Amino acid sequence: xxxxxxxxxxxxxxxxxxxxxxxxxxxxxxxxxxxxxxxxxxxxxxxxxxxxxxxxxxxxxxxxxxxxxxxxxxxxxxxxxxxxxxxxxxxxxxxxxxxxxxxxxxxxxxxxxxxxxxxxxxxxxxxxxxxxxxxxxxxxxxxxxxx
Length: 147
What we know:
Layout: H1 13-57, H2 68-82, E1 90-103, E2 106-118, E3 129-139
Antiparallel strand pairs: 1-2, 2-3
Helix pairs in contact: 1-2
């Protein structure tokens, strides 16, 4: 059998092209993975804030007018945060503030939550962890008149 002239050069250019392509594609893939993880962690802290605000808004006012509703709402919100699961990406869920407002036309609870986010693939010059914050406001639904 006669072999024709090879269409590939034997100088190793395909290995060089593959290496250059990988050096370009691998960092892009890691960046996309970090971005997706950040979006998921932000979604998690949004969910935490919303659930904590709902729990705080559903807390009945034990003694209307004396400020005990603020304390009860804060305890309810922190209970939700303490039961929130940790993950390798989002850890240390906490409630930084819980504001119970019940004044005539405005009856609402505003909760601010925070979670520590850890990058799955830290990159140079970018911190490997950061704190994500989220705020949620819910109307108070458990205020009943005393008879």
